Amino acid sequence: MHVELTHYMLLAAVLFSIGVLGVLTRKNLIVILMSVELMLNSVNLTFVSVARFRGDPMGQVLVFFVLCVAAAEVAVGLAILISIFRHRGTMNSDSVKLLKW
Amino acid sequence: METALFAILGLVAILAALLTITSPAPVASALYLVVTLFCVAGLYVLLAAPFVAAIQVIVYAGAVIVLILFVIMLLNLKPIEEHIPAGWKAGGIAVAVLILAAAFVSVMSGASSAVVTSQLPSEFGKVGDVGNALFAKYLYAFEVVSVLLLLAVIGAVALIRKQDAEETPDAR
Lengths: 101, 172
Hints:
The structure holds 2 protein chains of 2 kinds. Chain A contains 3 helices and no strands. By secondary structure, chain A is an all-alpha fold. In chain A, helix 1 packs antiparallel against helix 2 and helix 2 packs antiparallel against helix 3. The model of chain A has no long low-confidence stretch (mean pLDDT about 90). In chain B, helix 2 runs antiparallel to helix 3. Helices cover about 75% and strands about 0% of the residues of chain B. Chain B is an all-alpha fold. At the A-B interface, helix 1, helix 2 and helix 3 of A face helix 1, helix 2, helix 3, helix 4 and helix 5 of B.
């Protein structure tokens, strides 16, 4: 059996769903941030596998841009988490509900 | 060989991802996330993308996870009590399963018709190949991303600094 594009895409889909599950079912803000990282990673896996099976390096270039956005997101996200922790003394997402409906 | 590697790396990645989102301690979550990221880097090597794999290990498994671990340990974060209503949990699982099903259906119906090349140029995925595309065809996007990174650094520093000055005015 050969590993084909479909297999990589399905693996990426599973990883993405696990990330969605983490964002929806956890209250620890830092774990939510890590779940978002998981989702970004599965998208990168899709890009690289499509680049491999179509012979097009553009997918690999796109991974760099996604990676840069992810790094920026982590830096700003962690800064926001630190200020939340300083103000509320907790990482529970229930403590931050000013903008919640 | 390739199939076995794909199966092992994929299974470990999925298991570690599940442990990432289920373990109560944030430090354990971060360490399981490193395992997932390393497995994905291994899959990149299988996919003829050695340079992307190296960047994945350096930036993600290195810098990003170290940053997250630093924050967890500096703030001395302990597992918090998470009271999640059963209905909300079931809803989250339902949404995740729905997304998974939609992805499965679209992949199964669409991917098989995509153009598939089995013969790759020998340079494919190496530093020179990716660098040529990055600095020639996508130069403007590259510059915009560098501005984004600068803004992220400034934003992070500004977010942290401001409260220092307000909370401890006579500390220095």
